[in-house]
Amino acid sequence: MKKSILLLSFFLNLSIYSQKESGNLKIEINNLNKEQIINLLEEKTDYHFFYINSWLDNRRISKNFNNTSITNILDYILNDTAINYYITNDKKIILTYGNLISNSIYDNFDIDDSLSFVKKRKYLFL
How many domains does the chain have? Predict the structure, then answer.
């Protein structure tokens, strides 16, 4: 009996670890605001967020995500805001308000064609 419980515990932990590492998340969001969702994502993943609390509104969100990436979840919850995000290699997520962060200039970026976009957003390069 003890062996069965030990094996079951091992496989459950392995399953949770695999889910975190592969980026395929299963998250249930039930009537939470953006700050609560960020706290939930920090609990369920290895990511850590950096942001200013006043940027986040109190609008409640409910949605279930199955087998999805952190970027899909962030795109959904930040869709109606001026908040952008940048994910570092060491699993830090930096939220910015009205700024885009990039570690390089985009390929085929033409300022003439994108002038209206450039006027709306400031670019920060790392």
Answer: 1
